[in-house]
Amino acid sequence: MAPPIDPGILPQTKDKPESESDAVRARGEALFEAILNDDPDRALPAFFPKTAYEQVKAITNPASDWKWRLVANFKRDIHAIHFKLGRKSTALRFVSLDVGPGARWVDPGEEGNKLGYWRAYGSKLRYAVDGQEKTIDVTSLISWRGEWYVVHLTGFT
After folding, report:
1. What is the pLDDT of residue 89?
2. Which CATH number fits domain 12-152: 3.30.1330, 3.10.450, 1.20.120, 3.40.1700?
3. Which of 61, 86, 70 is nearest to 139 (CA)?
4. Residue 119 pLDDT > 90, yes or no?
């Protein structure tokens, strides 16, 4: 079986991502498993690809920014959320990743970007514990080639 193609090496499209899809669910599950297991690397398939970020950002050395700012903050946030969930984490069950309302196209030139993308603020990672649903905030999802990816888990830094 051939290894999967890195979507970030392909050109961006204006395809609007679906709010509910197998890919959204898989990325939500990966993010949830990373939080439960305090293992951020499990969630990297749900995170905006570095190769796509290199195409999008109009900054010096976007690969370094991706690694040392975005991914570092993402990993910090996963550790913090895991700690906050505490010992109950083994009893938690993934429900869904709910894409935030009001997704909009971000034009080139906005937010220091060379290319446009779809962005959704206010997404929620939904899970259940003891029969009750709870949520974890996901600050920002952005698109690449018609698929949603996490770019900021908590806040913008």
Report:
1. 62
2. 3.10.450
3. 70
4. yes
Q: Which residue has the higher pLDDT, 82 or 88?
A: 82
Quickly tell me which residue has 């649903």 as its tokens. 133
Q: Hey, how many other C-beta atoms are within 10 angstroms of the C-beta on 148?
A: 28
Full-model pTM? 0.92
Dihedral sign from CA coordinates of 41, 45, 153, 29? negative
75 near 40, Cβ under 8 Å?
Answer: yes
Whether residue 97 has pLDDT greater than 90? yes
DSSP string computed for the chain? -PPPP-GGGSPP--PPPPSS-HHHHHHHHHHHHHHHHT-GGGGGGGBPPHHHHHHHB-SS-HHHHIIIIIIHHHHHHHHHHHHHHGGGGGG-EEEEEEPPSS-EEE-TTGGGBSS-EEEEEEEEEEEEETTEEEEEEEEEEEEETTEEEEEESSS--
Q: Is the pLDDT of residue 55 over 60?
A: yes
Sign, CA torsion 45/90/152/138: positive
